[in-house]
Amino acid sequence: MAGEIEFVDGGTITTPQGFMAGATYAGLKTFAEDKLDLCVLFSELPCAAAGVFTRSTVRSSTVTVNQERLAQGIPMRGLIVNAGIANTCVGEQGYIDAVEMTRLAALKTGAMPEEVLVCSTGIIGVELPMALIRDGLDQIELHGNGGPDMARAIMTTDTRPKEVAVAFEVDECQIHLGGIAKGSGMIHPNMATMLSFLATDAAVEPAFLQQCLSQVADETYNMLSVDGDSSTNDTVLVMANGAAHNHPISGGTMAGEAFMDALRQVCTHLTRELARDGEGASHLIVVEVDGAASTDDARLAAKTVASSNLVKSAVYGTDPNWGRLMMALGRSGAAAEEEKVDLFINGVCIMEAGKPIPFHRDAVVSLMKQPEVTFRLRLHLGEGEATAWGCDLTEEYVIINSAYTT
Amino acid sequence: MAGEIEFVDGGTITTPQGFMAGATYAGLKTFAEDKLDLCVLFSELPCAAAGVFTRSTVRSSTVTVNQERLAQGIPMRGLIVNAGIANTCVGEQGYIDAVEMTRLAALKTGAMPEEVLVCSTGIIGVELPMALIRDGLDQIELHGNGGPDMARAIMTTDTRPKEVAVAFEVDECQIHLGGIAKGSGMIHPNMATMLSFLATDAAVEPAFLQQCLSQVADETYNMLSVDGDSSTNDTVLVMANGAAHNHPISGGTMAGEAFMDALRQVCTHLTRELARDGEGASHLIVVEVDGAASTDDARLAAKTVASSNLVKSAVYGTDPNWGRLMMALGRSGAAAEEEKVDLFINGVCIMEAGKPIPFHRDAVVSLMKQPEVTFRLRLHLGEGEATAWGCDLTEEYVIINSAYTT
Hints:
The structure is a homodimer. Chain A is an alpha+beta fold. Chain A contains eleven helices and 18 strands. In chain A, strands 1, 2, 3, 4, 5, 6, 7, 10 and 12 form a nine-stranded mixed β-sheet that branches. In chain A, helix 2 links the parallel strand 4 and strand 5. In chain A, helix 5 packs parallel to helix 6 (about 255-275). The N and C termini of chain A lie far apart (about 60 Å). Chains A and B meet through strand 9, helix 8, helix 9, strand 16 and helix 11 of A and strand 9, helix 8, helix 9, strand 16 and helix 11 of B.
């Protein structure tokens, strides 16, 4: 039976038992102040593992390698990640280097190369300097408190690391689930990449682990938009090593529900942190849609509103501009009937049944000065619900993404 | 037999014979320097007419009225347009006021109300001040040189009017086709609306006229992106009055091809002008895709690249950032194989077969300082071709769309 889910103070990816991590500066990241740029995650115990990946047709070789590794159906042991260079658009060398990174990490940890996953983030069209990676790996020390260093080492234009862990009970076993993520803003000079890595000491049936990750990613990371652009390298990975000695968690059980819920809370937290730290962002935008004709419609509407440049600009200007919300809803493709729509900004109703209602504009403007702005759109057509996360569009975004070359 | 298509110096919507226009300041537009805000187009002769409209589910009552009028299958005579207030999200009053506008224009011109079309653009959620419109209409004088005034009267945040006309011969009759358009940037405080009105003195079979407009709009206006947001009021209308006394033009003929080609040239010109005058824009962006698996794929790829915030920011920064082009291509949904893609910036090849080639960076940066930046993406998969138009993303865009309320 599942207990309550509690957030762990200072929790990170190495909070679960049996995971070690370490990071170093290998010389790949030339643009950031926080210079760690190469890291390894390792589990003494073999792990069930699952992943979700970018849907882009132009993708990093690391994505290909991870998909091949997970398709083997064997337990995983480790993960190696570099930031600074994305290992994308470099022809066949990309695949060769990705495999070589797993081989080097395997040599270091005593795992087999095919038990190691690999991610890269950074500029594209540049080959990985494998000699630097080889030398860097020698300097890495793996330890049970390595999570915070790993969270910093995967950053690119992120202004702060993103990490979290929760604890909960399953069958009288204490379970930990932790994770880290890095920014969905772009990095100098080419790429936006969202990476998130999750670890748990629960034992989880592999097929159920993939099912949980796919479902939760659709509800969280896939509902995040910083600038509407998605990356060649986007990857979420989860590893479950069973160190908590619980009976392996499967679907259709209370334990399964508890695990799914914990995963949802961790991923929601990281998604919010990613949105809040969007490039140039001054506000976190949350768009909640209910009463949509279907879940798909709710997701479409929420994501379209959250990613509209006009809505994002209005939030930056603390402008309760319901016209732009209606415009974005209208073009989203989700079924909507204007005369049924209610709109709320931070809990204040500003439109009812498709017509604006008198509201105290100054009060709503004040509410919008809070760091988080929540729009709720009630469509009154069905049972579909979804939440999307985004950030406002500021001059700073334009400056970050245009000004560095001239 | 069709002759050459020539652009007419100073051409506008009243260049074709038998069209009159007039405009006035009725008091609806409180935010622009150019104060004309109400206008009428009228043809003595009855016109074949056709339209294409926003696909948004939240739409102005004017769109509904126009669709109903065109569905009657009877000739049209006139068009009334106001700028400043969009007549959207005002409940049932919107439809009543739209119909009343056509009635007032009919009274003025001697047409029947059901022979008049109507468009509005401006802020939403505000009812039209019909008394102002009634008074304004009295002041309007219709004349054969009224096109330039009409082009100004439909402007919102546009910095300049957009108008053009071409002349060509069909069956030894001289034909004129003229048009005007207004901005796809947003206006204070709520709306982006693209309106374009076209007139020709050719006689054209009504069904063929609609077919031409639908096809050409898909190739031009529907390939335009200023900020990815589309409007509740977007409308393109064409009226053909037959004053040139040609044999009515139909499909599958040389005359039909000539007419379609003229329409394409007029609409392409106006689309480019709309992109160039996008809010805050400093560059026109043209994205040409060839070798796509299909026309749909080519359009998807071209439009995704042209509307990517990252690509738009890179153009503003005159950054030959091919990584962002590949990213946008990859996420577009169009079939693409990285190892086949060639990329060109203003004619200079920067990537061949999926790998960057050495190019003289400073030279390409210089080329990108020109007011027009053309990206060509060759996919080498099939015969699909398309062009999309957009503009760069600047701090000015963010300022225009955020700063006016605080």
